[in-house]
Amino acid sequence: MRITHQTTNVKSNQTKELNIVIAPDSYKGSLTAKEVGETIWKAFSRELEGAQITVVPMADGGEGTVEALVCARGGKFETVWVTGPLLQPVESRYGILGDGDTVVMEVANIAGLTMVDEQKRNPLHTSTIGVGQVWMHALDRGYRRFIIGLGGSATNDGGLGMLQALGAEFRDRTGQSVKPAGGSLGIIEDVRLDLLDSRLKECEILVATDVTNPLCGEQGSSRVFGPQKGATEDQIRQLDQGLAHFARLLEGDRGESLQDRPGAGAAGGLGFALLFLGAKIAPGAQIIANASGFAEKISQADWVITGEGRTDHQTLYGKLPVYVAEVANRHGAKPLLISGSIGPDVEPLYRHFVSMHSILRRPMLLEQAMKNAETLLYETAREIGRLIRAVEMDR
């Protein structure tokens, strides 16, 4: 289901009829992708009379994946209480798409980094058990097709917690079940994978992630993503060794190596566990775009607007705004970026965008910017709408 808006005013003599597609990611922790798109639409509608403006909420496998796919494909949300990243009860949700057969889940709202206070972040103690619990909830309701977004996790347990929730047993040298957290990986001595829920063999699993890292090593999940999840240098080494041990146990049972496959290191190694269960991994932005018919929607567009919470040099490496810009450029549309903030080293991004804009119009603290993000975005989008109007008037 697309969200299409056309201004109801009579076409102005000062503006040409325009076709604009707004396809943003969320401003994480502040505005959902739908809220970002709707805010820009309100601002453009005020400045660009007669323009056809289509809002296509996007995501790349992280926060907003469930909402973006439900908006794109129709469907509904299912609310469920599960065990959160710190092993506490949390309310989460997943989506059931309009086909009535496909479930979409996102780790960000089950075991997400934003769900853990900064001072409590420690991937030795966080768990993916809730991911398995959501999965079981959907299995019990008869669903067998799954899209799982892996971005934004607080975990580094290799999917240990998820596998335990799905029925597998992992015991230490004393025969006790290990705690479902990253710190347990290195003490596992006995594995019972034959106890996994048999319904998993009936499942089709598509994993959405922009991460291509292997499970272990210098480019692995612990080394690259551990610090942002609160891991110290000593903890990074412990987690990396634990993941290697965990992988050997699972691969020994399976008879093939999965830990070096692209995406195995996504979500603290959850990608590895999902590969073990037979999942296929694909770029998150591509999955959302295909599901929403994004390429078709921009085929007649003059301008395509995208953005994210923070744009920096990492945006070049598989992030959603660049994907949107590449598709827009292929269709002859002009891509423009509006993000919460823009960091250093973004010069190479000008290869993709006509221009890039931050909504920060004056000096302020991060907390202030996030609290006032909607107003700041609206003000900035109005200015950009006026600029687009001036450009189109000169044609």
Automatic annotation (TrEMBL):
Pfam families for the chain: Gly_kinase
InterPro entries, A to Z: Glyc_kinase_flavodox-like_fold, Glycerate_kinase, Glycerate_kinase_RE-like, Glycerate_kinase_sf
Keywords, comma-separated and alphabetical: Kinase, Transferase
Top-level taxon of the source organism: Bacteria
EC number(s) given by UniProt: 2.7.1.31
Keyword Transferase set for record: yes
SUPFAM superfamilies the record matches: Glycerate kinase I (SSF110738)
GO MF annotation terms: glycerate kinase activity
Main enzyme class: transferase
Family the UniProt entry places it in: Belongs to the glycerate kinase type-1 family.
Protein name as catalogued: Glycerate kinase
Organism: Desmospora profundinema
